[in-house]
Amino acid sequence: MEFQSSKSKVMTANERNIGTILHLSALGQYLFPFGNFILPAFIWSAKKETSPMLEAQGRSVLNFQLSVFVYTIVLVGLGLLLTLSAFTKGMIAFQWDDQSFAIRNLENISFSTGLVVGITAFVLFALLKITEFVLIVYGALEATRGKVYHYPLSIPFLRKRVNNNNAQTMDSTSEPKVFTSE
To answer: Is-above-0.85 flag for pTM?
Structure first.
C-alpha cells in the first residue's frame, strides 16, 4: 500500500527515511533489552501526528514486535513444559536441606525424548528470530520505497485511530451529514 504525504501529493524523502528508521529501530533488541519496543515506540509517538504513512509504519512495526513477543512466550513456555514433562516422567525426586541439594531417580528419565523436545524448541526459536530479522530488513526496504509493509502473522494489537474531525451521522430519513468546524 503506497501512501501520499498529508501535506503534498508526493511523499517526502524525510518521511521515507523516518519510516525506514522506524523498521530498523526494532533491531534495538540487540543493543539493550526491550529495545525492539522502546525505540520504535519513541519514534512512532514523536512522528505519528506528522504523517499517515509514519503512523501506519509505526503501528505495523509495534504490532509485529508484540506478536513476536507473544509467539516467543508461547514457544518457550510450551518448550519448557514439554521438556520438563519429558524429564519428570520418571518421577524425579528433588531433595534439599540447609547444606545440600540432590536429584534422585535420574535413571528413569527418557533423555532422548527430552532432548528432542528441547532441540525442537531451540530450532523453532532460532527460526523465529532469523525470520524476524529478515522481515525487519524487508520492511525497512519497503518503507524506503514509500510503502507500508504489513508483517505476516502480525496480531493487530494497535489499531488505527478513528478520526472524529470528519465524523458522519445518519438519520433514517436523510442523507449523510458531514460536520465541519467553521
So the answer is: no
